[in-house]
Amino acid sequence: MVMEFHYSGARRIKRRYHQKFRQKLISEINVTPFVDVMLVLLIVFMVAAPLMTVGVPVKLPKTAAKILPNQLEVPLEITLTGSGKYLVMKTPVKLNELISKLDIISEQRKNKEVFLRVDGVVKYEKVAQVIGALNRRGYLKITFVTDNDGPLLTN
């Protein structure tokens, strides 16, 4: 009596094992890496945004004034720094050129409102001279730029 062994049973077990645990193709997009990248970019922009404000460093006085609503046009801006410099729209100018430079810029604008940024250590005499020159030239709407959260004056 001769016995023959067939290993087909082992092949079937092996085939079932591979069919059961074989990875299937996924047809959806994996958004996890995309979300990770977006969160990192969000954090980077949140940290970098306050650093991107370009301006002349001036220590503005604090007042209890309300914040003005947003305007359509970038306002005309004059800055008097603590070191005695005068700037028109972030461009340094001499005191005698201040009004002529402002006139050139304001020719292309509808609004003649001037925002005046003055460092807290600047003498009132210099501020009064600039305001007087602006008034004489026809700039009658002058707004002082200040920081919020200043002291409230009460009776």
Describe the protein's architecture and organization:
There is one protein chain. This protein is α/β, with parallel strands linked by helices and 155 residues long. The chain has a domain at 8-50. It is 35% helix and 12% strand. It has a five-stranded mixed beta sheet with strand order 3-2-1-4-5, covered by helices on one side.
Radius of gyration over C-alpha positions, nearest whole angstrom: 35 Å
| Number of DSSP strand runs | 5
How much strand content do the residues show?
5-15%
How many helical elements?
4
**Residue windows where pLDDT falls under 50 for at least 5 positions:** none
Strand order of the largest sheet: 3-2-1-4-5
Structural shape: elongated
Instruction: Profile the largest sheet.
Output: 5 strands, mixed
Distance between the termini: 121 Å
Arithmetic mean pLDDT? 78
* SS class: alpha/beta
State the order of secondary-structure elements, H for helix, E for strand: HHEEEHEHE
The helix fraction, in percent, is 25-40%
